[in-house]
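User: If only I could read backbone structure tokens as easily as an amino acid sequence. Underneath my words sits a plain record pairing an amino acid chain with its backbone structure tokens. This is the protein in question:
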Amino acid sequence: MSERGASEPSEANGGPISTTFALLLILALAVGVILLIKGLYPTDLPATKNPDFIDNVFDNRAVVWAARLLLVSAAAVLAFGGLFIVISTGIRMKNGEWLRRAGPFEISETAVSEIEGQVDFWRTAALAGQEEVEELTERLQESDELIEQLHNMLDDG
């Protein structure tokens, strides 16, 4: 087993270009988050004539800012969660994995194997039926040709 030096790129490392790209991406995300946080901070608060308890609570810029951050972060979590669900469902469908359990409902392996057995049975039955239909079609064509020949012989004779 050979040991690699610290300066040698490993197989997992994509090289200096991918490292630079990753750092630029992280930097862009950090700048975007900072600008979002700064943009969510309220510049002025509306004044109300008869403030109640809620108006008094939200009369503080820090509270409004925290509420906005909470809403934006909840939206981001929901967006990434939905994206994850869609992508993982697509990957599972591509791999041929089917949903067998949803909450308290579950399909047992015996039920799945019975259904797969029935599918195989009906598939073989359909193929056998198709072969029989093709054979009967050929025999019918031969019979039609023979009848036509006999009919021609009677007309000529």
Notes: The beta strands are 101-102, 105-106. The mean pLDDT is 83. Helices lie at 16-40, 53-57, 61-94, 109-156.
